[in-house]
Design goal:
Blueprint lengths: L1 H22 L3 E6 L7 E7 L4 E8 L7 E9 L4 E3 L6 E8 L4 E11 L9 E10 L6 H8 L3 H69 L4
Antiparallel strand pairs: 1-8, 2-7, 3-6, 3-8, 4-5, 4-7
Organism: Aspergillus clavatus (strain ATCC 1007 / CBS 513.65 / DSM 816 / NCTC 3887 / NRRL 1 / QM 1276 / 107)
Protein name: Endosomal cargo receptor (Erv25), putative
Keywords: Membrane, Receptor, Signal, Transmembrane, Transmembrane helix
């Protein structure tokens, strides 16, 4: 019975980690070199006080006539890193200051051809946020946790982040619904006001015309 319980727990953990691994798979693309502006950005959303680790693996090597620059910025105007002329693996980490979107941007500047026919660099980007960004090997060693305990801690934090995200979306949906209802209420009263003005204007015109014709002894 104990063996079957351990097996089922292991199966559940395997399925969950397979799911999370698929959701957090790295993004790969080719960035062509240009003498102008060829910046390409990838956007993510992050909650306040969340750890973000950006790992970029850039093909090629320094001095090959192409200069790849990376820029990490958020929608609030904060810069979180500007590594220049990167090649190989580059890692940048920061902690978000607010609930906001952030962009990871790359540009490939053409310095010289150097006889190369393929003027592009391959880029592999991996963005880890929250629980995914933490160093669980170090946590396991410091707290002397078993592998299963470490996995459960990681899953627990991931689930908590999902719950927080759902609460955030629910709050936004509530705010948008309140705004929609308020707008509908204002439109309704504006329509009633417009109809009242039109009716009042029509009554005034009738009274004015009747008084005009009476003054002219036409009625």
């Amino acid at each position: 019975m104990g063996r079957s319980s351990n097996l089922s727990l292991g199966s559940v953990l395997s399925v969950l980690f397979l799911l999370f691994a698929q959701l957090s798979s790295a993004l790969k693309f080719d960035l062509f070199a240009s003498t102008g502006n060829n910046e390409r950005c990838i956007r993510n959303f992050v909650f306040k006080d969340q750890l973000v680790v950006v790992t970029a693996i850039v093909g090629g090597q320094k001095g090959d006539g192409q200069v790849v620059n990376m820029h990490i910025k958020d929608a609030l105007g904060n810069d979180h890193g500007r590594p220049r002329d990167i090649a190989g693996e580059t890692r940048q980490a920061f902690t978000s200051v607010a609930d906001t979107a952030f962009d990871v941007c790359f540009e490939n500047k053409l310095v010289s051809h150097h006889g190369h026919s393929n003027l592009f660099e391959s880029i592999e980007l991996d963005v880890e946020i929250g629980a995914d960004a933490r160093d669980w090997s170090s946590i396991q060693a410091q707290e002397k946790l078993k592998p299963v305990e470490t996995d459960l801690r990681r899953i627990e934090e991931m689930v908590a982040e999902i719950v927080n995200e759902m609460e955030y979306l629910r709050a936004r949906e509530q705010k948008l619904r309140d705004t929609n209802e308020s707008t509908n209420e204002r439109v309704k009263w504006f329509a009633f006001g417009t109809m009242g003005m039109l009716i009042g204007l029509g009554v005034w015109q009738v009274i004015y015309l009747r008084a005009y014709f009476r003054s002219k002894h036409l009625i």
